[in-house]
Amino acid sequence: MTGAAAEAATVRREFARIHGRSPDGVWAAPGRVNLIGEHTDYNDGFALPMALPQTTVLAARRRADGLLRLHSAQGDGAITELAVADLVPGAVAGWARYPAGVVWALRDRGLPVGGADVHLDSTVPTGAGLSSSAALECALAVAYDELYGLRLSRPELARVAQYAENAFAGVPCGVMDQMASVCCAEGAALHLDSRTLEVRQVPFDLTGHGLRLLVLDTGVAHDLADGAYAALRGGCERAAALLGLAALRDLAEAELPGALAGLPDGLAPLVRHVVTENARVGRAVAALAAGEPEALGPLLTAGHASLRDDYRVSCPETDLAVAAAVAAGALGARMTGGGFGGSVIALVPAAAAGSVARAVTDAFAAAGFAAPAVLEAVPSPGARRLG
Ligand code: GLA
After folding, report:
1. CATH number of 3-201+381-385
2. CB distance 154 to ligand 1 below 6 Å
3. Which residues carry out catalysis?
């Protein structure tokens, strides 16, 4: 049995033990890393995420009585039982707010969905900036799409999941994580246009080029619900309004010097980051299309400097991980995700993977930081039915 088939069998068996009958199906949705294009999605801009092998696997069966009964292998053992008709934003706490939020969001859009029994199990680390909440939402969304015959498109499912996170869980995120979780394909990075939700699969062959992509989880938990993310988003919207633009995506790199001159000091660095970051996405896609993935390295490191110095969402741990990885032979490294902690990605020659991971671990020990967890990112499939 492959890894996915074995996971599906375990989750199916656990579902039967917990809910006392067999599920209608088993679905999976992955976490992600973003290669480049950070804090661009809510500016209608571009990003280049890829799905991780780590997934949320979810078994579900329709119920006719309007109850949503949720159980998680990572929970406290109890079943969270909710009446679908009574779901309201803010009323559900903890991990259950993500799947419950998706059911609420579907109903809020007027779609005819009712209850279900659910059991889920996730290998996506939480609080690591790897989109564990998007994986949870998207696994539930693809399951409900089939259970209730909704036939929503992948971008529609991503919008529903994002709406659940924004309006039900109260996290003002953009759409990148959910688009990555539902649209990514094995062996590829996803070139995402956050305005139109158009996507292009860009082949990303690490192994064929003797490369590996390490994920260094700093263990510093980030929390997008706190005010910092919302404040940055608000700053970008104010800057776009001052510039007379629908969104910062509409400012070209060549127009940047003129635009910056007319902006208040607090907003100019935000605009510089977003505009240069969108340009870096374009360059990264061109490098991959030209069959030169190693050329991503300097773009990653430049992206980190921009997040550190202009957008100011890095922290001592992510800065140290980037510096130590690059000093030890990584072609480039940067924080990935919203920031304020979370994970760093490092593009490394395969032969240097061990020494780069060791160098970062040693640097953390020397600085008195807890040891980072090291994962490997392999471009993996998006949300799908497993059985
Ligand atoms: C978080 C949000 C995304 C995106 C990133 C930053 O992951 O959920 O929508 O804004 O931060 O690129």
Report:
1. 3.30.230.10
2. no
3. 177
